[in-house]
Amino acid sequence: MFRIALKNILHDRVRMVAALLGIVFAVVLVMFQFGLLSDFLRNASAIIDHSGAPIWVTAPSVANFEFSGELRESLDYQVLATPGVGRVERLIMTFVRFRKPNGSYEGAQLVGVDLERGTRIPWAFHSGSHEDLLDPESITIDLTDLEKLGSPGIGDYVEVNGRRARIAAITANVRSFIASPYLFASLENAERYAERIETGETSYLLVTPSPGRGVEEVLAGLRKLQGVDVLTASDLGRRSQEYWIFRTGAGFAIGLSTVLGLVVGTVIVGQTIYSSTMDRLKEFGTLKAIGGSNVHLYAIITWQAIIYAIAGYFPGIAASFGLARLAALANTGILITPLLIASMFFLTVGMCIVASLLSIVRVTRLEPAMVFK
């Protein structure tokens, strides 16, 4: 059955190439959209995932990391006094105006980190380190945001919310889900630049249990505090991802593009296989006349679909990696994971088999006597 299917495909090379191009297009489009979505989801919870703290204390009903609230200073001591708590880091998150060297402004997200308590944020540096943020007026910018922020260098002075700041370090691909760049600073510097954060207030408290104490045990104690939400890092990260995907329309747009790619690929492959089947109706009729069952005919058509899928899948994957590299040059992240690559194989095979169903229905109705007409 495999050999017959392969000969059917190779019989018309032009039709074969058209079908393969359709499959490659579908694979690239689906990989691009899912890769874009994966990168979005990673960035939406990046700070939470890299913090190392399994428990986060937030203001009530915080929808995502970017839209933080304010926590009073006394809450820091209440959390530290909770049984089982080992370490508490304060973190400030606020939006600021960054004035570029040419005098224009860019919106940015200022993140104040607790350097005194050994924060892991930010987690990747291109130049500089956490120690460089201890100096007054020090902030970071990200390598991917250099051009957007006017290309300042290490040691250059800029303006944040009308106050002077110095670029002390450059992070490496530490990006947010939204277009606003991340600026990291010490808590003291962040309080100086923030307009709506009072001295001593914070946006989040990051809690690590004491050695030997479980997360659930500490959670139970912290949830007795009034006027706050206490979440695991995974819950807060998932809440942030779901907000951007489901409540902003981004998920619908990406999902629609993915479905369109699958529809285009299915239509092209289906039309190709159906045309090939119609051109060889007498051959299929002959097979039926000499005792071939419908199962044998189904197997031939299904093998055609599988061959098309495999032949189009690998060039599609290669093209997807090439497109991801091009996107990276434009500072657009496309995250291609082993799980996505493996899932795409089965999705491609399924798409091609679905495309062959119309041909299978046509062959089912075939009368063996037609070969004698």
Structural write-up:
With 373 residues, the protein is an alpha+beta fold. It folds into 2 domains: 2-43 and 249-372, no CATH class; 72-227, no CATH class. 49% of the residues lie in helices and 17% in strands. It has helices at 2-11, 13-44, 46-50, 74-80, 187-193, 215-222, 233-246, 250-279, 281-289, 294-329, 338-355, 357-364, and strands at 55-58, 85-99, 105-113, 125-127, 138-142, 157-160, 163-171, 182-186, 204-209, 229-232. Strands 1, 2, 3, 4, 5, 6, 7, 8, 9 and 10 form a 10-stranded mixed beta sheet that branches. β2 (85-99) and β3 form a beta hairpin. It is elongated, with a radius of gyration of 29 Å.
The shape is elongated
Overall pLDDT level: 84
Q: N-to-C terminal Cα separation, in Å?
A: 26 Å
Largest sheet: 10 strands, mixed
Helix content: 40-55%
Give the radius of gyration. 29 Å
Layout of secondary structure:
Elements: H1 2-11, H2 13-44, H3 46-50, E1 55-58, H4 74-80, E2 85-99, E3 105-113, E4 125-127, E5 138-142, E6 157-160, E7 163-171, E8 182-186, H5 187-193, E9 204-209, H6 215-222, E10 229-232, H7 233-246, H8 250-279, H9 281-289, H10 294-329, H11 338-355, H12 357-364
Parallel strand pairs: 3-8, 5-7
Antiparallel strand pairs: 1-9, 1-10, 2-3, 2-6, 2-9, 4-7, 6-7
